[in-house]
Amino acid sequence: QVQLVESGGGLVQAGGSLRLSCAASGRTFNNYAMGWFRQAPGKEREFVAAIRRNGDSTNYADSVKGRFTISRDNAKNTVYLQMNSLKPEDTAVYYCAADTEYLLVVSLRGYGVDAWGKGTLVTVSS
After folding, report:
1. pLDDT tens readout for residues 45-88
2. Contacts of 60 (CB under 8 A, 6+ apart)
3. How far is C-alpha 96 from the geometric centre of its chain's CA atoms?
4. Considering Cα of 43, then 49, then 52, then 54, what sign does the dihedral take?
């Protein structure tokens, strides 16, 4: 029943930064592990980052480690993805995901995840 809405995407030059936000509805946000996935043109959806429901543990794809940071503010029912040192290869539609099982939001493709946002487009120009 959780509903997710992403925002913050846009056009940025290589080396720049963006911060994505995902706002969740409902009173049970803190019961959900949260993740970010992305899908580039012509490619399958892939895992980017995830955070446990209490925020005490995170995981990142190797391709974004050291550049992206996931965080959450349970009081605001919001999860964030801070993206620094952006590369053209980061161009994709970014999706927010929620599930009570952390295992599903750290999986490569996000199969079986309970809830998805509609996505926000990030375009990194060279």
Report:
1. 999 999 999 999 999 999 999 999 999 999 999 999 999 999 99
2. 48, 49, 68, 70
3. 5
4. negative
